Automatic annotation (TrEMBL):
Domain of life: Eukaryota
Organism ancestry: Eukaryota, Metazoa, Chordata, Craniata, Vertebrata
Protein name, UniProt field: HMG box domain-containing protein
Region Disordered: start-end pairs: 1-46, 78-118
DNA-binding found in the keyword field: yes
One GO MF term attached to the UniProt entry: DNA binding
Species assigned in the record: Phrynocephalus forsythii
Length: 118
């Protein structure tokens, strides 16, 4: 997929953008401060990596579809994929997960368990 939420469709020459509203200045500063405090985003699972690769193609083929129709189509495409293709996405997801765990353990040290309160 192209940069960010943008998808370039070679058939029509148009770019499709995310459906989200632009954030106000106040919301942007809030989300930035929260992002600094957070430990980073969790890695995507294999199906989401597949969706990230194929969403642009489905969107170009069917520009009038809404999000629900696209999700149904991508889900059926995922189930029809041969196991060798799925394995590639699963390997990538596993590598991302291991990198995330390693990065998290280096920055946090030992992980602490939450104490139970009764």
């Amino acid at each position: 997929m192209a940069k960010g939420n943008r998808c370039h469709c070679p058939k029509s020459g148009k770019r499709s953008f995310s459906l989200r509203r632009p954030k106000s200045r106040r919301q942007q500063t809030r989300s930035r401060s929260r992002r600094k405090q957070s430990r980073g985003r969790r890695p995507l699972p294999a199906f989401f990596l597949f969706m990230k690769d194929k969403r642009c193609d489905v969107k170009c083929a069917n520009p009038s579809w809404d999000v629900i129709q696209m999700a149904k189509k991508l889900g059926s495409m995922w189930h029809q994929q041969p196991s060798a293709d799925k394995e590639r996405y699963k390997r990538t997801a596993s590598q991302l997960r291991q990198a995330y765990k390693g990065k998290r353990s280096q920055s946090c040290g030992k992980t602490r368990k939450r104490a139970r309160t009764r």
